[in-house]
Amino acid sequence: MGTADELFASLGTFCGAYNENKALKEMNRDWDRVVVVEAPDIGASFTLILKDGELTLKQGRLPDADLRVEGPSDLLTDLFYGNITPTEPYLNGTLKVFGSEDDIMRLDFISLMIWGE
Amino acid sequence: MKRVVSVSLGSSKRDHTARVEILGKIFEISRRGTDGDFQKALELLQELDGKVDAIGLGGIDVYVYVRGKRYAIEDGLRLMRAVARTPVVDGSGLKNTLEREAVRYLTRETEFLRPGTKVLVVSAVDRFGMAEALTEAGCDLVFGDLIFALGIPHPIRTLPELERIANKLLPEMVKLPIEKLYPIGKKQETQDTEKTQKFARFYNEAQVIAGDFHLIRRFLPEKLSGQVILTNTTTKDDVALLKERGAGWLVTTTPEYEGRSFGTNVMEAVFVVLIGRPWGEIVPENYMELLRRINYRPRITPLN
């Protein structure tokens, strides 16, 4: 089981990597979204806010989320550090992502563009 | 008589059978769609195994090539592994050669692909050979992979960028179920109206619209203005639709038999029978030789 601090740090790393990627920011200028990330095993929630191509991270769970990503804390930490990819845990149900199919694909795309081979 | 059957995840409404003579051999070529039913496709493949001369897999690529790299789509591999005795192909081996040659032919023999021609390739990642040939022809390219697959309004304009993005995305995307990657079953008969309206400008700005026909149709605007459609498989209904929407020309890369063009997977299955060697041992030059022997030309049809 991971800790809330570790998960927060991994989300921070993810944000940083995204915000350094000018091409990715430009591609997502049209896609303002609120993404809640939750680890029920440690009772931790965080929110990623994508607006005008910029990504910010907040403690806690903001209302009116467009997407919700839920999973075990250690899985989420590894995911947002880029140590693992989301596909297999998503397909086997360990990682749950709630939202429209298009939004889920876009989030997947962002993470692969940051951490992909 | 040699029997070639294409098992497709596509609509059964597109099923067809034809008898043709190719290089002195009579072939019965048929297509059987399973309306998106993966299990039915597996069962059909097992039923045909050992009973026909070659099987083509339609509506699904098993292999996607990005320059020297090959990626295997897991659902495609599952289908391929259902067949133990009969040669089974997905068209990817021939696609690279055939579509490259189609572009070169058009460049040499027509005015469709002069340098600077604006070409939209709706999805380029599964037809790298065509993308390379269009680049060599000096066309002004838009690869619509991010636009139409993901709704991201970012036209990919160069082959290096396509390659870079493909190499980042494909290792994971090949693990997804096929229905997440490509329209199968009923989706082949419907349009994505939201993306069609949002991204119509990419169709409107192009002089040539190229790529897989199911994808071209899925995002086809109500009105075209005489564009050339460069694609693979079309039925009479598809041709009527393009005519009605205002396309100017239709170029199909696979030959036509009895009123329709068959998918590249079918042609590759026919070629494998003609070559008479295991698929894994066939190289592009083997396909090229056959294309020369059959005097291959893409089929060009005026529409309006």
Outline the structure in words:
The complex is a heterodimer of chains A (117) and B (304). By secondary structure, chain A is α+β, with helices and mostly antiparallel strands. Chain A has a single domain (4-110), classed as SCP2 sterol-binding domain (Nonspecific Lipid-transfer Protein, Chain A, 2-Layer Sandwich), CATH 3.30.1050.10. Chain A is 44% helix and 24% strand. Chain A is built from five helices and five strands; from the N terminus they run H-H-E-E-E-E-H-H-E-H. Chain A has helices spanning 4-19, 22-27, 73-81, 87-91, 101-115; strands spanning 33-39, 44-51, 54-59, 67-70, 96-98. In chain A, strands 3-2-1-4-5 form a five-stranded mixed β-sheet, with helices on one face. In chain A, a hairpin with a 2-residue loop joins strand 2 and strand 3. The longest helix of chain A is centred in the first third of the chain and has 16 residues, at 4-19. Chain B is of the alpha/beta class and 304 residues long. Chain B has 13 helices and 15 strands. In chain B, helix 4 (128-136) links the parallel strand 8 (118-121) and strand 9 (140-143). In chain B, helix 3 (92-109) runs parallel beside helix 4. The N and C termini of chain B lie far apart (39 Å). The mean pLDDT of chain B is 91. The A-B interface holds A 26-28, 30-31, 85-88, 91, 102, 105-106, 108-109, 112-113, 116-117 and B 146, 149-154, 165, 167-169, 171-173, 175-177, 180.
Percent strand of chain A equals 15-25%
Q: What's the mean pLDDT score of chain A?
A: 94
CATH fold-level assignment of chain A: Nonspecific Lipid-transfer Protein, Chain A
Number of strands of chain A: 5
Round the mean pLDDT of chain B to the nearest integer and report it: 91
Largest sheet of chain B: 6 strands, mixed
**Biggest sheet overview of chain A:** 5 strands, mixed
Query: In terms of per-residue confidence, which ranges of chain B show pLDDT below 50 for 5 or more consecutive residues?
Result: none
Number of helices of chain B: 13
Kindly report how far apart the N and C termini of chain A lie. Answer: 27 Å
Judging by the overall fold, what is the CATH architecture of chain A?
Answer: 2-Layer Sandwich
Rg on CA atoms of chain B, Å: 18 Å
> By helix and strand content of chain A, what is the structural category?
alpha+beta
Please report the two chains with the greatest interface, counting residues with C-beta closer than 8 angstroms to the partner's C-beta: A-B, 19 and 18 residues
User: Can you count the helices of chain A?
Assistant: 5
Rg calc of chain A: 13 Å
The CATH homologous superfamily of chain A corresponds to SCP2 sterol-binding domain
Secondary-structure element order of chain A, N to C: HHEEEEHHEH
